[in-house]
Design goal:
This protein has about 250 residues and is an alpha/beta fold. About 45% of the residues lie in helices and about 15% in strands.
């Protein structure tokens, strides 16, 4: 992942057309959300194939730090995973082990889409351990307290702040301007800078100016809004302009 700026977005709606439209919009990556959506594995595989075929990097935010879930989405062709609630070094090590084949990890070996249904097995297995992206989601105050240990785990490509859950973990859901939430974010930024670890943030509103603010702060892995917010924001904005004509 490195410290080069990378901007992606979030997919929560299980239709390939949405993935195709977004993949052609200039994002570096798109993340299919299996934690807070009703997208199933079959739909995820279709979305992964659509994203990849349009020159965009397919990530999946798995529903839990579960080896079986991680294995299945990687077998479906995901090139990276975002793992929720990584609050300790042990959580990070568990995610890395699930995403990498032996001897680096304990990912089960199968013949699915990622391995060319068996025909590209040697090529895939020989390279994926070095290329799979494993992003630890920092969304609890415990994760901030253990951040230096989390980012030190070999195989963790970077971290990304989950702003809603992080603020909720101290009883202030969505209150990003509260001093206690800002304190956590400042600590996150300071530790990552000291350890030269890439910083990530999910900017939920569909407002590019908020992305620019994060870039200026030093964030390099930025999720910019999500499919439903982009759609709803544009619909509401344009319909509000027509209100006076609908009396």
């Amino acid at each position: 992942m490195g410290n080069n700026l990378s901007i992606g977005s979030w997919i929560t709606l299980a239709h390939f057309s949405i993935a195709e439209i977004m993949a052609k919009s200039g994002f570096d990556w798109l993340c299919i959300d299996l934690e807070h959506s009703v997208i199933d594995y079959y739909e995820a595989e279709q979305l992964i194939a659509t994203i990849e075929s349009n020159g965009c990097l397919p990530y999946v935010r798995v529903g839990a730090n579960d080896p079986n879930i991680i294995k299945r989405v990687l077998d479906a062709g995901a090139k990276g995973i975002i793992v929720p609630m990584v609050n300790s070094k042990e959580d990070a090590e568990k995610a890395v082990a699930a995403a990498k084949y032996p001897p680096a990890g304990n990912r089960g070996v199968g013949l699915a889409r990622a391995q060319g249904y068996g025909f590209d097995f040697d090529k895939y297995v020989g390279s994926i351990n070095d290329h799979v992206k494993i992003i630890a989601q920092v969304e609890h105050h415990e994760a901030i307290e253990n951040l230096d240990k989390i980012v030190s785990v070999d195989g963790i490509s970077g971290t990304i702040i989950g702003p809603y859950d992080l603020s909720g973990s101290i009883g202030l859901p969505g209150q990003y301007d509260h001093p206690d939430v800002k304190k956590l974010l400042n600590k996150y930024e300071t530790i990552c800078k000291e350890l030269s670890s890439p910083t990530g943030f999910h900017v939920v509103p569909a407002d590019y100016k908020l992305v620019i603010e994060k870039i200026k702060t030093g964030y390099t892995f930025i999720a910019f809004s999500l499919d439903t917010i982009f759609l709803g924001t544009q619909c509401r904005s344009e319909m509000n302009k027509l209100k006076k004509y609908r009396k």
